[in-house]
């Protein structure tokens, strides 16, 4: 009897056996997605192979219900890669495969074409500088070799990394090789996709969460068949099923969006390197502020370092001024007098300003004057943010919204104090200060639609607006020659977050947002308002000195034993009952401790501690942190399934998480 070996996307790491459909050759079923009965459900699963077994063993087996795909979607590489992911990110083969070949993709007869892009974007040909040319030559040389190698391009903001990427893609294309181009957030970077479509038109496919399941299927097939040669997308595009891969480019490689938080919690950079090795392709990571991990890799010569330390056309890096908020006289104003003066000077020169504040809403917290209690989200352990238009309270974590109560829910007091400014307040203040300036605010509240993002982009480009206020979504990718001043309202927001990466993130954010200015003919200026003017993250961002920052920060990581000097796993315990979560996390802690002792694993088990947001949408969450070598952590993780938590509690593990909060 012939049976099919089917991998199901559930957290059980074994294959299941099914009988083929009657009259259909098993050979024609394998390597395709199939529908199978599983318990009381019908699931989309992966038919991997078939085998002959004694018919007496097949009595209890069920038939598959349907073959979904006409073409073989499951390549050898996909199977090998799913094994790698399953082992290294602690998940089942089925869960890994569902990342590589989404179960949601649906076959369709429609043919999807790229929208017609106006040709004018492409004609902008740059004269490349020597550093760019050297970088391109080095990459092309390696493309000729047809063996795996990897590069880190550390290029200051506006150093012309994109031109280097495009030249490498062109060269790969000449060799008939395919490229995967990854950017941190594709839904918000239409302009980049447009440039690529204009250059490479029919060869380009855009892969992101916004496209339909039919379109995804179409793209997937085109990539497998080699009908397109370039896929641009966010994280999950790293799985694009090209068979003749030449290049994988990860732009802004330091961005946390490259780490998937849900299961399988893979790191896109590691997947790229794995695929590069499998297909003898080149992997390029690029950033103005490389992650400490990647830069250390370059220092250790595991990755080739390419430095672009000059801006294109020899433009100067902006001058950064750090102003202390400590001796602020008017505590209610978001701006220091010097900042206001700088803004008015730039407005008088008819140039543009970007005002950056990584906090949306009006005031970050509301406190009752009588009893000092903070207005908290009823579902989460965090204060609600006051928003204007309409006046309301919003939880930025679960989305809960309610009207501002007329009196304090605890003491019925009528007076409250507002603390902390958000982008709405900054907008209000600027409108009062500069009555004739045209101001646009771009943050999570206004940019929910792509249209608003494009309005901001086009409005600044066409000089319709004088001032753009925004959260971190304006910190990257924006390239406007008329912006000659960037103001960072509060550089300390990310510094306060209790996480081992918060200093690194602060340095990255200030550097990236500073890079939005000085791209035209005049040198740009940046003003950074902070309570910690002498913090090294701020001092080195001011000096555009990544290397000195790296030296200090990497020493800290070494001293405190954090990645890249060890491996980390974050085990989370979640549940609706606070007491159960407490009990389970204590039990789990000792369960892990016992295993460490029993198998003599050199691992540190820390915790359990409450998550940064201890209660989120009624769910309580605690963490246990495991530190040590990769092998030991993965070995310990194998036993996690044996732990018996209480009903209603859930245990999860994330290997090398992007934060520990
Ligand atoms: Zn009160
Ligand atoms: Zn909430």
Write the layout of secondary structure elements.
Blueprint: E1 2-7, E2 16-18, E3 32-38, E4 41-52, E5 66-67, H1 76-88, H2 93-100, H3 130-145, E6 149-155, H4 161-174, E7 178-182, H5 190-200, E8 204-207, H6 213-225, E9 230-233, E10 245-251, H7 268-279, E11 282-287, H8 292-299, E12 304-308, E13 319-324, H9 337-348, E14 352-356, E15 363-368, E16 385-387, E17 392-394, E18 401-403, E19 416-421, H10 423-433, E20 439-442, H11 450-461, E21 467-470, E22 483-488, H12 502-514, E23 525-530, H13 536-542, H14 546-560, E24 567-575, H15 578-598, E25 603-616, E26 619-628, H16 630-637, E27 649-655
Parallel strand pairs: 6-11, 6-12, 7-9, 7-10, 8-9, 10-11, 13-23, 14-21, 14-22, 20-21, 22-23
Antiparallel strand pairs: 1-2, 1-4, 3-4, 3-5, 15-19, 16-17, 17-18, 24-26, 24-27, 25-26
Helix pairs in contact: 1-2, 3-4, 12-13, 13-14
How would you describe what is shown here?
This protein has four domains: 2-100, PriA, 3(prime) DNA-binding domain (GIY-YIG endonuclease); 119-313, Rossmann fold; 315-360 and 422-557, Rossmann fold, CATH 3.40.50; 567-655, 2-Layer Sandwich (Alpha-Beta Plaits). The mean pLDDT is 92. With 661 residues, it is α/β, with parallel strands linked by helices. Helix 1 crosses helix 2 (93-100), helix 12 packs parallel to helix 13 (536-542) and helix 13 (536-542) packs antiparallel against helix 14. One zinc ion (ZN) is lined by residues 377, 379-380, 395, 397-398, 400.
Gist of the model:
This protein is 29% helix and 24% strand.
* Domain count: 4
Radius of gyration: 27 Å
CATH-scheme architecture of the largest domain: 3-Layer(aba) Sandwich
Q: Could you give a short account of the major beta sheet?
A: 7 strands, parallel
The fraction of residues assigned to DSSP E strands is: 15-25%
State the end-to-end CA separation.
52 Å
> Which small-molecule species are bound to the chains here?
zinc ion
**Strand count:** 27
The H-level CATH homologous superfamily of the largest domain, spelled out, is P-loop containing nucleotide triphosphate hydrolases
Question: In one word, what is the shape?
Answer: globular
CATH topology of the largest domain: Rossmann fold
CATH class of the largest domain: Alpha Beta
Strand order of the largest sheet: 8-9-7-10-11-6-12
* Arithmetic mean of pLDDT: 92
The helicity comes to 25-40%
Counting H and I runs of at least 4 residues, what is the number of helices? 16
